[in-house]
Specification:
Layout lengths: L3 H6 L9 H4 L5 H31 L21 E2 L4 E2 L1
Antiparallel strand pairs: 1-2
Length: 88
């Protein structure tokens, strides 16, 4: 009768796992999960940027008389008093 411990020592070596065997195949569910997680980070950024653009559009494009300025183009009148840094 043959001892069982000898049969374990004589076992044939197995081939190492290939890359395809090591990683489970990708599924639609896992793909959508990854996309959803990334969208959760991107959506607030898009909302913040679009809100700031809307706020800038609502603000006047020129400063009224007495408003702070550094160049003539910033004033609605087209004239900036450089000494006082305000629109004339």
């Amino acid at each position: 009768m043959k001892d069982q411990s000898d049969s374990y020592d004589q076992a044939e070596p197995q081939a190492p796992a290939t890359r395809a065997d090591a990683r489970p195949e990708s599924t639609r569910r896992s793909f959508l999960g990854r996309v959803g997680r990334k969208a959760a980070y991107v959506a607030p950024l898009v909302l913040i940027l679009s809100a700031s653009e809307a706020a800038q559009a609502a603000s006047p494009s020129c400063m009224p008389s007495g408003g702070a300025c550094t160049v003539d183009a910033e004033c609605c009148t087209g004239m900036c008093n450089p000494g006082m840094m305000e629109c004339i």
